[in-house]
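Tutorial sheet, problem 5. The two components below are modelled jointly, 578 residues in total.
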Amino acid sequence: MRMTNLFFATLRETPSDAEVVSHQLMLRAGYIRKLTSGVYTYMPLMWKVLKKISNIIREEMDAAGAQELLMPILQPEELWEESGRWQAYGKELMRVQDRHGRMNALGPTHEEIITALVRDEIKSYRQLPVNLYQIQDKFRDEIRPRFGVLRGREFLMKDAYSFDTSEEGLETSYQKMSEAYTRIFKRCGLETRMVRSDSGAIGGSVSHEFMVLTKTASGENDVLYCDTCTYAANSNRAESVMPPAQTDGKFSEAKEAETPGVKSIEDLTKFFGIEPSCICKTLVYIADNKPVLALIRGDRTVEEIKLKNVINANEIRIAGNAEIEELTQKFGFNAQPGFIGPKGIDVQIVGDESIKELKNFVIGINVTNKHFVGANWGAEFNLPKKIADIRLALAGDFCSECDGKLEITKGIEVGNIFKLGTKYSEKMKANFTDENGKEKPFIMGCYGIGVSRTAAAAIERYHDKDGIQWNMAIAPYHAVIVPVNVKDEFQMGIAEELYKRLIEKNIETVIDDRDERPGVKFKDADLIGFPVRITAGKTLSEGMVEIKLRSTGEMFKVLKDEAVSKVVELIKQELCGS
RNA sequence: CGGGAUGUAGCGCAGCUUGGUAGCGCACCUCGCUUGGGACGAGGGGGUCGCACGUUCGAAUCGUGUCAUCCCGACCA
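Model answer (structure tokens):
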């Protein structure tokens, strides 16, 4: 490809509405342009990257025994009624009406379509198992699209669906997919962690997410992972074992104490000269419009998602100050926030495991400017009946599965795998006949990879101040040749010759034949992120060209006749190394 | 849906308070000059100032409405 022909434009300035690095760089380097909120055009460079990722996915999916097909994006309402998701999916499901007034959905995922298809086509256990996948645009009408291609409304996704005759079969399919996923991301140059997750709205029993750990602040999720074993989990469901802490308040006497204006945990620690871990903190939440008290050790934070799951609520939020006072008044107290406690408040109370070992602790008693000190469970206070893990796991906690320690990082979810079981096949009456002539629903699994999101994750993970550092396997081109001065016939001649010979070697090469000053070409090459740059300039006086690696900055000066073999070698190395 | 902000050339922004010929930088076109890290000079093209209504002799500027985009949250994962 000649740079003078390539459809692209780099921007010197960062568009003001791009917040995260991948979004900024994709815009600046000419990979994407926004059409409307959450919807982007993939420019030629971007499309090359997406095709590379897609092809890696294809190779690994095919190798794992899956078959590619392509399903429509427009899906009739009836199928979604069958699964019950026309109602359940909510506003994220983009609904469109056709000229006859019939309703359709733009596919956010394809369980309904594939289940209906397989129901019609597969009748016997002899035809199973089968795993079908597609790489296709999905549409989800996100409330708030953001981060460019990381969380768009329209995005490229690979989705696969497995159909088995038994749970054991599903386990095998699931295992195969998890192995394929690990290989796929590795080949894209991305280290991923397989993270346990709730199956959530899609349903089913077991699911895992594949996360790219990014360190930068631009990841969407906090991920806690063990430094020793493979345990990793989203922070909103990570389990941990707390490290030892001072949990004995060492008050010699159990009594009410005056605590004027002492409201926060920090105030209390200062006032009494104790550790925050000697305090029982009481938080008021409103869950589905009903107040709930959450008790947790003073040095710990409640994870609202965990609390929500424990009490089986649909919606949860922290109560406002007015609501807290109102609550205390309802039970005959009149306490301000900061002095709340469980005693005498007859609502659902959930205690975090962290409060069990508290001794001689400090706790609120619903009297403004007073606390109770030297409290003990079973004496002055009763341990809540409901004790659960509702706490946010922290870096430095111990792993719940081994002796290791948890660390925290940001993560971007690039893939997920679900065991669906018979959730869809039962509702949609998708049955096969087993060995005994009995009708049974398919046992299903589904497996997604965000293709466009994977590209964004790769940029989030690998970039520097100058631009993108693509892994060789997914870079739009392998190499760029920069003739420093295109009007210098000698330089240009060498550059053209190298270009021809690299193309002959099947190296995907761009020649920057623009009549620009060298600074511009170097800046653009770095920004776009060509993994290998070959410069034909002043070193030609010694018969040499320069070869520079984008990822490491490593530079080689080689004789021009050796340039091609050196480039081929470097590219091979990088492709195998990943 | 709640809170905040912004819509002026492809991009980044000024102008608006105090109404009177629509500006700057980058990008683009022409010529010259320059060629190892986003040069320089001269000339040029491109804007119904998001849209609608209103106030006014006159609106980018004031008022009302509306649409869009972005950020924080809720949601999703």
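Marking note: The radius of gyration of chain A is 30 Å. Full credit if you identified this.
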